[in-house]
TrEMBL record:
GO terms for molecular function: 4 iron, 4 sulfur cluster binding; metal ion binding; molybdopterin cofactor binding; NADH dehydrogenase activity. Pfam families: Molybdop_Fe4S4, Molybdopterin, Molydop_binding. It comes from Halococcus saccharolyticus DSM 5350. Residues 7-61 form the 4Fe-4S Mo/W bis-MGD-type domain. This is Formate dehydrogenase alpha subunit. PANTHER family: NADH-QUINONE OXIDOREDUCTASE SUBUNIT G, RESPIRATORY NITRATE REDUCTASE. InterPro entries: Asp_de-COase-like_dom_sf, MoPterin_dinucl-bd_dom, Mopterin_OxRdtase, Mopterin_OxRdtase_4Fe-4S_dom, Prok_molybdopt-oxidoreductase. Transmembrane segments: none annotated.
Length: 662
């Protein structure tokens, strides 16, 4: 690809994470440069990943539609490829019904593209539409939706900068969402705010922490409950907030009786004095905010629910510098969910069974969406070849997953029909019957929604290569062929308009305003600025009060994930959610070939620093070099996702480590 075809003047949004920095191409360096005065990266900074974003366009691109013939994918005309997709999906639907088709995607695609994807699925009669980036923060979003009425970050990056204390749990924002971290957390901490980091491993975020608590994995909910207990013991709860904005306080207090700070802190692997100190910091802060990541997803919602309790008893919701703030991963992870690319909700976090929401959709589409929720992506994939016979995949690579490898291959091979729309060949296209070549981020127009609910523009700075087409155009063609609904749109603006008429979170937004700078959801009536802080007077449930959860539920969630019978010998594997290849310097590659182990565990297993070791889980074995370090707590080891992937299944992974003899 020649670099000349990228337009330097086009300002667009970084595709590499959910922070949503603004950038443009710079001919001088051949890389991206930030835009000063942008909504997110105001000073015009980008992180190294963002600077390299235009490299996506150079990848081994798909440039022609492909159809499988005699086992091989062969180039065909668009007409032929689209016919093939239509026939494949119709065949499955006629034979097995609409729920035998899965629509998977697309956290890297625009809001408009996601909207069309779910419109196709639902117009065909199925809610089996999901995106797998959602599972990175699913338990957290679900707890927030249930108790607060919305899974969106409660606060904005701007107002978070006013916090006096941050509690960062199971996340590494200093490295994973660096521009967001540098915009709100770092300056506040430099100004004297406390940063409590709750993570079994010290990572880059810990470097700025005023206190690091490293509980054993599976003991986060317990630890957070102990923080709440200590806060109550010290009388640091917010009585006014509790009286005005919560229910169930007395029951909550009673449920705290079962905890014994000294014994339970030990159970969590922590020093009781450290827990008390953290509780004091959090409880005494005028404004305290929680930031979460993928590390709290393993305990079926126990940890996010305990964190919501902690925020409620300390009055840290609905105000600037507070709240529950999951820092999301992929560029449009938030937007894909907002658009209804999820099995349980129509656009705008409205349940598929919500009568009013269904009526709004039916009025626009002329088609009733199905009222029963569909299935989540991991379940759909497990049913490939049985309950699910056909799949349409948009901008995802579900063949790389945390199922057993052999099973994954069997599952994908067992589909009657698979169509994939992607910009490059990947593990999933290898199983496809039809491959549709699509546009990369910098080749298309539309909107994406970042981690603090800002809707911003993607603008085309280049054209798709060869015969590749824009995702939106392909989806509109497919919708028209496959369904009775209207898919004739005046480009992304037309799709956006239709979406805002049924998505109450985006109601009142103008496409032109988004292109001009951005809009945040939800827009208060009659105003142009989206709400920075959610739940100010009322929660998004519509109620003034949110329930405190009796702590039994939280504690049993923590207990449910007990260390398991083989814990004495096994270690819990920590890894990171690596989806993009980060630029690999030789030093980084050396780092990636190591497994970090606590010196205590290393001594117990006779593992020398620097020794070659076999790391084994129930899924597989990898050989790595051991590095003794206090960065990981006892009972855990850490390896980069690039090497840990063969070991990791769903849930927590236990590994055994043995030194290999020379
Ligand atoms: N450079 C770069 N940035 C990225 C990405 C990338 O691939 N590269 N990917 C993006 C994506 S898709 C995502 S989802 C985000 C992920 O963003 P984060 O979730 O912030 O990133 P991780 O590095 O996965 O951090 C998870 C942390 O959870 C900890 N952890 C693991 N188990 C437990 C536990 O039981 N309890 C607690 N308290 N902590 C635990 C781990 O030790 C780790 O420090 O990053 C995004 N940003
Ligand atoms: N085994 C394993 N499983 C994991 C993870 C892991 O580290 N290991 N990480 C987990 C995490 S945190 C996440 S977020 C998910 C991520 O899972 P995915 O979203 O599936 O991420 P990728 O594997 O990067 O695949 C993205 C695909 O989208 C294509 N693509 C990018 N932009 C566009 C576009 O504009 N249009 C179209 N049509 N295609 C596009 C890319 O070419 C690529 O093939 O996976 C989760 N699952
Ligand atoms: S923080 Fe995220 S959005 Fe900003 S430049 Fe880095 S990768 Fe891009
Ligand atoms: Mo993710």
């Amino acid at each position: 690809m020649s670099e000349e075809r990228i337009d330097e003047r086009t300002e667009t949004t970084c595709p590499r994470c959910a922070v949503g920095c603004s950038l443009r191409y710079d001919e001088g360096t051949g890389r991206a440069t930030g835009i000063e005065g942008a909504r997110v990266n105001r000073e015009g900074r980008l992180c190294p990943k963002g600077i390299a974003a235009f490299e996506d366009l150079d990848e081994d691109r798909l440039t022609a539609p492909l159809v499988r013939r005699d086992g091989n994918l062969e180039p065909v005309s668009w007409e032929e490829a689209l016919d093939c997709v239509t026939n494949g999906i119709e065949r499955v639907r006629e034979r097995y019904g609409p729920d035998a088709i899965a629509f998977l995607g697309a956290p890297r695609c625009t809001n408009e593209e996601n909207y069309l994807l779910q419109k196709i699925a639902r117009s065909l009669g199925t809610n089996n539409v999901d995106n797998r980036a959602r599972s990175c923060h699913d338990a957290t979003a679900e707890a927030m939706e249930t108790r607060l009425g919305s899974g969106g970050t409660t606060n904005s990056l701007d107002d978070l900068a006013e916090a006096d204390a941050f509690l960062v749990v199971g996340a590494n924002p200093a490295e994973r969402q660096p521009i967001a971290f540098d915009r709100c957390v770092r300056p506040a901490v430099n100004d004297g705010a406390a940063l409590l980091h709750l993570d079994p491993r010290a990572n880059r975020t810990t470097r700025l922490a005023t206190q690091h608590l490293a509980p054993h994995p599976g003991r986060d909910a317990l630890t957070v409950a102990l923080l709440a207990r200590a806060i109550l013991d010290m009388g640091l709860e917010d009585r006014t907030f509790i009286a005005e904005r919560t229910t169930g306080f007395d029951q909550f207090v009673r449920s705290m009786d079962r905890f014994d700070l000294a014994a339970d802190a030990e159970r969590a692997g922590l020093d009781p004095a450290a827990v008390r100190e953290a509780a004091e910091t959090f409880g005494e802060a005028e404004r305290a905010a929680v930031v979460t990541g993928t590390g709290i997803e393993a305990d079926e919602g126990a940890t996010p629910n305990a964190l919501l309790d902690l925020l409620l008893v300390t009055g840290n919701l609905g105000k600037r510098g507070t709240g529950m703030n999951p820092f999301r991963g992929l560029v449009n992870e938030q937007g894909a969910s907002d658009m209804g690319a999820r099995p349980d909700c129509l656009p705008g976090e409205a349940s598929v069974s919500d009568v009013d929401a269904r009526a709004r959709v039916a009025a626009e589409w002329g088609v009733e969406p199905p009222a029963e929720p569909g299935e989540a992506e991991p379940d759909l994939v497990r049913e490939f070849g049985s309950g699910v016979r056909g799949a349409f995949v948009l901008g995802e690579n579900p063949a790389v997953n945390r199922l057993d490898d052999a099973t994954s291959e069997q599952l994908f091979a067992a589909l009657d029909f698979l169509a994939v729309q992607d910009v490059a060949p990947n593990e999933t296209t290898a199983f496809a019957d039809v491959v549709l070549p699509a546009s990369a981020w910098a080749e298309k127009e539309g909107t994406v929604t970042n981690l603090d609910r800002q809707v911003q523009a993607l603008r085309p700075a280049a054209s798709p290569p060869g015969r590749a087409r824009r995702d939106l155009d392909v989806l509109a063609d497919l919708g028209a062929r496959l369904t009775d609904a209207d898919f004739s749109y005046d480009g992304p603006a037309g799709v956006f308009d239709e979406m805002t008429r049924m998505n109450l979170l985006y109601a009142g937004m103008e496409y032109e305003e988004v292109l001009d700078g951005g809009e945040r959801w939800p827009l208060p009536e009659g105003e142009n600025e989206g709400q920075d802080v959610l739940h100010r007077e009322r929660f998004r449930t519509g109620r003034q009060r949110a329930p405190l959860e009796p702590i039994e539920a939280v504690a049993s969630g923590a207990d449910a994930d007990d260390r398991g019978p083989d814990f004495e010998e096994g270690l819990v594997l920590l890894t990171e959610s690596r989806v993009d290849e980060d630029a690999g310097s030789p030093a980084a590659r050396r780092e990636e070939a190591t497994v970090q182990i606590n010196p205590v565990d290393a001594v117990a297993r006779d593992i020398e620093d620097g020794a070659q070791v076999a790391v084994e889980s129930s899924r597989g074995v990898v050989e790595l070099r051991a590095r003794r370090t206090d960065a990981v707590r006892e009972g855990t080891v850490f390896a980069h996702a690039s090497v840990a992937d063969p070991l990791v299944g769903s849930g927590r992974t236990q590994v055994r480590i043995t030194e290999l003899s020379e």
